[in-house]
């Protein structure tokens, strides 16, 4: 299908998908992780990737964040080729400044928080808005304080991340991602590194983000209850392929594929 495929928006206007994978191939050495993957995420849609460990879910998020090099194929953000495009019938890399323009639309929250340990919470959140988006320090700090309030950490603005619990650090990481006003938010097993009693506070914040914004979300999680609550669609992966693509009500109660049934039986 061509990259210009569209769906219709509410007013009959053409709306491009927020994300589109076209024949995406990813190899690490001679290990092929993704072998011609195709899927789309509509604007505002929340899509969760589930499946066994090693099936390529995190690699998909890292490709969108341009943290991994795309071996072949194309990824489109709002219809715009992200890292590679067809020019004169040849697949060529895009210029770094074109890639950067698109990656500023994308935020990611990692399993291991990845906060800057030598900066305060406030500095962590304002760094990119000031240096990447060119916002004034005052404006960035105002927004950061609003976001800290939203994630329940208004009193931690001047703390250093190492003094915070894992759950608090992850809430700062969520605020940091939101401070860039992303159109697309990638969540990579954001509760997997947390002690069980800290998982709830992080999922609570994410439920709130899902409810109160129209940010497109691509989520990798083992928290099936959370996936069921926030997702519009769930994609079951196995060995780099989509085994099943269904709304959560179907995926979690009445999956059509044996592979999905076996996986869910093992994890639920
Ligand atoms: P999942 O998120 O579904 O657990 P991943 O995307 O993390 O799966 O990994 C998919 C496969 O790619 C695994 O076999 C993993 O070992 C491999 N892989 C991921 N990152 C690298 C890397 N940087 N170098 C080599 N192999 C990798």
UniProtKB/TrEMBL annotation:
GO terms for cellular component: plasma membrane. It is a peripheral membrane protein. GO terms for molecular function: ABC-type amino acid transporter activity; ATP binding; ATP hydrolysis activity. It is found in: Cell membrane. Residues 19-264 form the ABC transporter domain. It comes from the Bacteria. The keyword Magnesium does not apply. Keywords: Amino-acid transport, ATP-binding, Cell membrane, Membrane, Nucleotide-binding, Transport. Belongs to the ABC transporter superfamily. This is Ectoine/hydroxyectoine ABC transporter ATP-binding protein EhuA. It comes from Georgenia thermotolerans. The gene is ehuA.
């Amino acid at each position: 299908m061509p990259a210009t495929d569209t769906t219709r928006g509410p007013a009959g206007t053409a709306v491009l998908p927020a994300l589109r994978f076209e024949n995406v191939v990813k190899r690490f050495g001679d290990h092929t992780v993704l072998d011609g993957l195709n899927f789309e995420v509509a604007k505002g849609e929340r899509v969760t990737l589930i499946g066994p460990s090693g099936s390529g879910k995190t690699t998909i998020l890292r490709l969108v964040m341009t943290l991994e090099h795309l071996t072949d194929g194309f990824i489109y953000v709002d219809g715009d080729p992200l890292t590679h495009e067809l020019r004169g019938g040849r697949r060529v890399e895009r210029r770094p400044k074109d890639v950067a323009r698109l990656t500023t639309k994308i935020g990611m929250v990692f399993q291991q928080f990845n906060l800057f340990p030598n900066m305060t919470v406030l500095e962590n959140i304002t760094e990119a808005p000031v240096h990447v988006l060119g916002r004034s320090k005052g404006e960035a700090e105002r927004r950061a304080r609003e976001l800290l309030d939203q994630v329940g950490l208004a009193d931690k603005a001047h703390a250093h991340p190492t003094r915070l619990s894992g759950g608090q650090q992850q809430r700062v990481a969520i605020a940091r991602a939101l401070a860039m006003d992303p159109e697309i938010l990638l969540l990579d097993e954001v509760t997997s590194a947390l002690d069980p009693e800290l998982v709830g506070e992080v999922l609570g914040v994410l439920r709130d983000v899902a409810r109160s914004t129209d940010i497109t979300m691509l989520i990798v999680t083992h928290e099936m209850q959370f996936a069921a609550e926030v997702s519009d669609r769930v994609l079951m992966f196995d060995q780099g392929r989509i085994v099943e693509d269904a709304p959560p009500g179907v995926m979690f109660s009445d999956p059509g594929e044996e592979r999905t049934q076996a996986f869910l039986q093992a994890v639920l």
